[in-house]
Amino acid sequence: MKFVSAPFLFLLIYSSVLIAQDKIEERGYFTNPSFTSSGVVFTDNYASSIYLLKDDKIQTLISSPNCGRYFTINKNGSLIGYKIINESGEQIPAVYKLADNKTIRLAEAQSLAGQPSFADDDAIAFTLGSKLIVLKRELVKQFELGSYSNIAPISPDGKYAAFNDQTDQIFILNLQTKRKIKVSDDRFGYFNPVWSPDSKYLLYSSLGGQIIIYNLEERKNIIVGEGFSPSWANNSSSVIFYKKYVKEMKLVNTDLFIYNAEDEKVVRLTNTPEVNEMDPAFSPDDKQIIYHTYNQNKIISAKYFSSEQKLTSHKLIYSTSTVQPQYFKISNSIEKITALNIPYVHQVYDTPDWHNGHWSCAPTAASMVLAYYKLLPRWEGWCSWPSPGHTNQWGRYVAEKYRFKEYYYQASSGDPNGSETWGGFGYMWSAGSPHTRMASYYQKHGLNSVQSEAPPYSEAKAEVEAGYPYTMCVMLTTAGHLIVAQGLHTERTLIFNDPYGNKNTPNYPSYDGKDVKYDWPGYNNGFQNLTGVAWCIKHRYDNHAVQDSIVDDMEFEDGFYLNTKAPASMSKWNDKNQGYKNHFWFAYTNSSGIKDTCYAIWRPTLAQSGYYEVSAYIPFSNASDARYKILHNEGQDTVIIRQKDFNNEWVSLGSYNFNAGGGMVRLGDASSTAAEEIVFDAVKWSCLGPLVTVAEEKNIPAKFELLQNYPNPFNPATKIYYSVPFNETHGGASQQSVLLKVYDAIGNEVATLINETKAPGSYEIEFTSTGGGYNLASGVYFYSLRAGDYYSVKKMILMR
Question: CB-based contacts of 360: which residues, under 8 Å, 6+ apart?
């Protein structure tokens, strides 16, 4: 037998093409058939019940949340190990005795309990929290694993137990020495360890679907390859499993394969394009194989000839048109972490009516993440279903053309109806798949996105605990599905936005996919299971703090509104990675002069009421009359700016009174001239001082000025008058430094009357010849005003 060491395991990349979410999941089907002493037992695709097929009749043995998930059978086929989960989410490891139809509870209800497993000497093992419990008749032994593991099977010879840790790495625990050995390689997350019947090998799977076998004697890993639902032959000589074939967003076929340990080869057992064989298992004598057909809902047995490695005489055991899985609600569990409030978009019901969204989970998941980070403006679309219809703000990005950050999302691919589809769907499928294109789609929108293959639970948990959305390609459906993790419900159960609905409730796809709960592969807290994790994407976004008095053109939901409602559309907006903060929008003017097609609104959040100068940033333009409308305390003013006269500068739109909270600036594409590029960039509000009356506003000076004192000559006092305008050279700063001094006839400084900042306005100050500790003699004196580049001197006469 040929082995390779664990660090050199390679990844057979999981197929990134996603199946259409068809009716098979909705109608239900039987899974995981296994031989027992009483007949064939199996569960359904929701793991809601465990059934027994005996004498061509089906009996429901157990019905409870996820009772069929990871159920086990002892060596002689008389016991079924499973987990009871009550409506409060408490868990009880249990054994069902087939001979007398009796359930035996192995422990009291716990917050976390594991799946029971069996040794050949009748020992039963299961976990309670981080402890492994081994029961053998009256003897109870406990072993500390270090973390909770739901699947921690005891080896058939009773000497070992296998488990996965918090990082989804596989360990073997020697129950005699209590020594732990790590067998996996840290490259991916792994789960579901299964002992060979002779206890010499441990089979386990990567979260992405790679089958690996560990040899205990040689401490080496064998790479079997991609496969699902692996099962040992009872003589430990081989492993049977199935492979998936996925093409153009559809599950094309599945077939059965067998790995033979002696010749180290994988042999194909079935080649039936019209039949989807899944979940194979050996009979006790290894002479038969039992499996189910996904697309036909049949349970089949076939003769297996090990010498020839072939199946013959496929026999129908049971067939049904529909399965009625049970739906349970776990109502009393409380989330440890509040889920992020990510906007919800349904891939079928929130995308345009003309688009068949059954293949659109990836771009729909992406639209939710981009909406959460406020990276795109709202783009309202009408959705006719569910009746009576509704609007959604983000679904059009899935399927329609738009421009953003100088990229035009006009590449197309066909949806299930053959309709040409653009947007995120076209980007991901026209030149690859979500596996190869989804991370770059995020990156083109400004996210720092990093993709990882088959990552462990610890990565997902760390992301959602830190408050980051986490995009995941999982196996909720047979060929894969994209969802967004956004919170932690309890250990190994995450909270998601599922663009296809909630698989815990009937009629999936359903319109209840926000904040749904799914269990991690290998775990069972009563919710539907992710089954596998093919690849995931982490996101980071440097979201700069919103400047309340400066509203940028990328601050969607924080002061900036870009109109995309008809007759406007995102396809009519263009943009450039230039201007203030390296981005601005532009549209082409229409010559109506009155009615806007495209327009934008800026709304500041001003900390205080006051008199503000409003300025617009113009990077460049060829528009001759941009019509800015400013809504302020006294009403609305329209200011026409020749944008073409400016280049990368702030341009004043005038000064106005605004209450705390702010007013509004609106700019549209209506103009006297058509087809000019009109620019929409940042707008800022600069406080010039407190609120002013209309009369005061009219009297604000336009320039610095030092006026003649009065009276002149004077005795003993006079008044000096001066004016302070807007500081045009510094963007309309509200205060300016002013220095006013008095000198005698030979230039000696007599007094400093003003040395402070002043708001725009007209001022007067009294000067007395006997103040400030001095008593001036009659004569000629001078006073000067200095403010920035302005300097002026006047003469005055003191006559006693």
Answer: 347, 348, 351, 398, 399, 415, 425, 499
At position 34, the amino acid (one-letter code) is S
Burial of 789 (0-12, 13-18, 19+ CB in 10 A): exposed
341 exposed, middle or buried (CB, 10 Å; 0-12, 13-18, 19+)?
exposed
Please tell me the distance from the alpha carbon of residue 26 to that of residue 501, in angstroms, as a whole number. Answer: 12
DSSP 21-80: --SHHHH--EEEEEEETTEEEEEETT--EEEEEETTEEEEEEESTTTTTT-EE-TTS-EE
Sheet containing strand 790-798, edge to edge, reads: 749-758, 736-743, 779-787, 790-798
Q: Cβ neighbours of residue 202 under 8 Å, at least 6 residues apart? A: 162, 170, 172, 183, 193, 194, 195, 196, 213, 214, 216
Roughly how many angstroms between the first and final C-alpha of the chain, as a whole number? 120
Helix, strand or coil for residue 104? strand
Give 3-state DSSP helix, strand, coil % of the chain, rounded to 5: 10, 45, 50
Residue 549 tokens read as 């008095």
Closest Cα partner for 500 from 518, 523, 525? 518
- Residue of 467, 629, 639, 658 whose CA lies nearest to 548: 658
Determine the residue type at 242: Y
Can you give the three-state secondary structure of 370-411, one letter per residue? HHHCCCCCCCCEEECCCCCCEEECCCHHHHCCCEECCEECCC
pLDDT, tens digit, for every residue of 303-360?
A: 999 988 999 999 999 998 888 888 898 875 555 556 889 999 999 999 999 999 999 9
To the nearest 10°, report the CA torsion of 745, 746, 748, 753.
20
Give the span between the Cα atoms of 608 and 606, in whole angstroms. Answer: 6
Cα–Cα distance, 534 to 790 (Å, whole number)? 70
Name which of 231-240, 256-265, 362-371, 769-778 the model is least confident about: 769-778
In sequence order, what DSSP letters do the residues of 256-320 get, joined into one string? Answer: EEEEETTTTEEEE----TT-BEEEEEE-TTSSEEEEEETTTTEEEEEEEETTTTEEEEEEEEEE-
Q: Tokens representing 652?
A: 């004043």
Query: 621 and 644 in contact (C-beta within 8 Å)?
Result: yes
Residue 126 and residue 116 in contact, taking contact as beta carbons nearer than 8 Å = yes
* Tokens of residue 438, six digits: 């989804």
Distance CA 616, CA 650 (A): 5
| Stretch 500-523: mean pLDDT | 94
> Alpha helices of 472-606 — where are they, by DSSP H?
none
Instruction: Provide φ and ψ at 571, rounded to 5°.
Output: -70, -15
> Cβ distance 357 to 18 under 8 Å?
no
240, containing H or E segment: strand 238-247
Cα(146)–Cα(161) distance, integer angstroms: 14
pTM of the model: 0.85
> Per residue in 393-409, pLDDT tens?
999 999 999 999 999 99
Containing 785, the helix (H) or strand (E) segment is strand 779-787
> Where are any strands of DSSP class E within 145-207?
160-164, 170-174, 180-182, 190-195, 201-206
Q: DSSP letter at 461?
A: H
Q: Which residues contact 551 (CB under 8 A, 6 or more apart)?
A: 558, 559, 560, 602, 603, 604, 682, 683, 684
Give the chain's domains with CATH numbers: 6-319 (2.130.10.10), 357-539 (3.90.70), 550-698 (2.60.120.260), 700-798 (2.60.40.1930)
